[in-house]
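User: Um, what's this?
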Amino acid sequence: MADGSIITQLDILFTTLSILSLIHCISKRGFLSGTITILFLFIHTILFEHASLFLGGTHCHASSTILPMISPCSSINSVLFYIPWLYTSIEGAKKLNLHIAAYPFAVGLLQLGFGACYECQGPMRAFWKWPDENGTIADSPEILSSWSGYPPLKFLKDAQVQNEVGTISEDGVFHVSQHADEALSERLWKFPLYAPYFHFAYGFAWAFGLSLSGEITSQVALTTKQWFVAGLGAFVLFLQPIWFTGFLSDKLNLSLVQGVPLSLGLSLLPILILPKQLPTPPISDGNKRGSSSSSSSQTSDLLLFGICFTMHAFFVSFPWRIKEHTPTNFHLFIACVSTVHLIAQYYCCFLAGKQQQQQQQQKKQKTI
């Protein structure tokens, strides 16, 4: 696994970005509602990460020297990453006033852009370990032996025997499930092709839940109910885009190196084709719409953009700050994806609001 000093850098980075996300959320929603929202994201991620690790046996994170592990293979910095990753994408896409059917695709693509620089470098930098050729993600008798047979649920016993879920042996070897091992087998630069695509799928799932349970516009803050409904749905809805991409690749006889970009390209179509919502004047009573008056009056959002910029500044410069060799084409790939994401978030945070104001003014002039 990665050197302790490198993992400490991740601890500091994701703690900082999570705190900045909390500050942003409080500034838009108020102290109580903003704190509850970010706390919910943190707790939800612990449950989701725990389930994916112990049911799929998908990967194992490096241990931190300053922050405790939540459970074997699950680090706090990996959980904290989810907060700015989800929050900036959901809030950024909301500023676009897209058609309700296009919003999930925009959130998914923004999440892919935010997280790819981290996800794709993870296995190369040993931030975590994917299954090896033997299906092993961790081998630590002193830590994992006591977790043998976990989770202790009767209905999972047969699945554990048949390797349908992740398993931990009595001698402390953590094995991936057969299904997850197959899904993670096709790789590029050491990362599975489905790994970065999961970022899109997970963002799509959250946004789909948000759109089902309330209004999605730049003028109205998301309600606590929307966050809770979306969180519950995300546990299963993230699988649908992954299944679609696998189905598409199989039908067209494509490898995932071809199928994933094709699927992502198709995801742009609803954003480009479906008509945007015309923004409406903000409602003065913030209590009715979750502090909408405070959030809708701003046409620029430096803090939200700053969170994304800090993320990319850290990871794009990372190959220059370590001694290990980095393939030039891989570094270029990371830099390009990060640049595209920053351009997209710049538009969301600074340009979209101004364009919407101009549209409102033009609409007023036509009615006079």
In short: The first helix runs from residue 4 to 29.
